[in-house]
Amino acid sequence: MNEQRDQTTQTDPTSQYEQPDNMDEQLPHPGLTGSMEDEPDHGEESYRGSDRLAGKRAVITGADSGIGRAVALAFSREGADVVLSYLESEEADADETVRLVEAAGRTAVRCPGDIRDEDTCSSIIDTAVRELGGIDILVNNAAYQMAQQGGIADITTEQFDQVMKTNVYAMFWLCKKAIPHLQPGSTIINTSSVQAVSPSPELLDYATTKAGIQNFTKGLASGLADKGIRVNAVAPGPIWTPLIPATMPVERAESHGESTPLGRAGQPAEVAPAYVFLASQESSYITGEMIAVTGGLPVT
């Protein structure tokens, strides 16, 4: 990473981050940050908050690592308390996310569990209401993918079900449970992907869910607009997170991001500000939209 004082410092985006040196490493799923030879940048040294979310209460799924950790860090430095949802096997990563939130002087509430289960999703929302007194921001970020080089022929029914339950069912359950607790001015932010509009055959199941998330976001935004609740999505491109070495074959992982116009993989720290913007009152006239953070890959 080139010298950067904070996320607002003008920097050449093509060289703001170098490509990781060890993109050919492979990790067992779900992949832990501490096991990576080149750990992602979540904004630990660069993200500077300015009270844009002061007093807000947020729920973030997939909050232990990658984009979820970067969003939790940014939200906390902007003044929000956070409920962190993650798999129990990711507790080691969650420990670090909790440390970062608490170092910002905010409350971090752990809520481990598998969101493929509807009761777990209900528990996450109940925990937020009980521990934080309510919810102002819901970030549906957790996702499952597993690249299959043979495309549809290699995607099993079990994998298809896991992808659908993690990426779509959980979002539906969490939104349905959270909406009665959301007041006017609250926001829902869903994580889609560049795969929603440019699907890779080896990620057919994952891409299908991401396109569904985009459409779900638009429809829910229309349905909640009269209640003063905004619903938007962020579509990341090739971002360097534990998911890449844990779910991609070496030949895909080692060139991750090189085909983008900016010529490199993005870092979670570069994605988090989009979530902050959509969660803040600065985006008050934006709903039903999807912000692309893709290094220049088009999503429209």
Structural features, described:
It is built from 8 helices and 7 strands. The protein has helices at residues 66-77, 91-103, 118-132, 157-178, 204-224, 243-247, 250-253, 268-279, and strands spanning 57-61, 81-86, 108-112, 137-140, 187-191, 230-236, 290-293. It has a 7-stranded parallel sheet with strand order 3-2-1-4-5-6-7, with helices on both faces.
Characteristics of this structure?
globular; single chain; 300 residues; seven-stranded parallel β-sheet; alpha/beta; 8 helices; Rossmann fold
Map the helices and strands.
Elements: E1 57-61, H1 66-77, E2 81-86, H2 91-103, E3 108-112, H3 118-132, E4 137-140, H4 157-178, E5 187-191, H5 204-224, E6 230-236, H6 243-247, H7 250-253, H8 268-279, E7 290-293
Parallel strand pairs: 1-2, 1-4, 2-3, 4-5, 5-6, 6-7
Helix pairs in contact: 1-2, 1-8, 3-4, 4-5
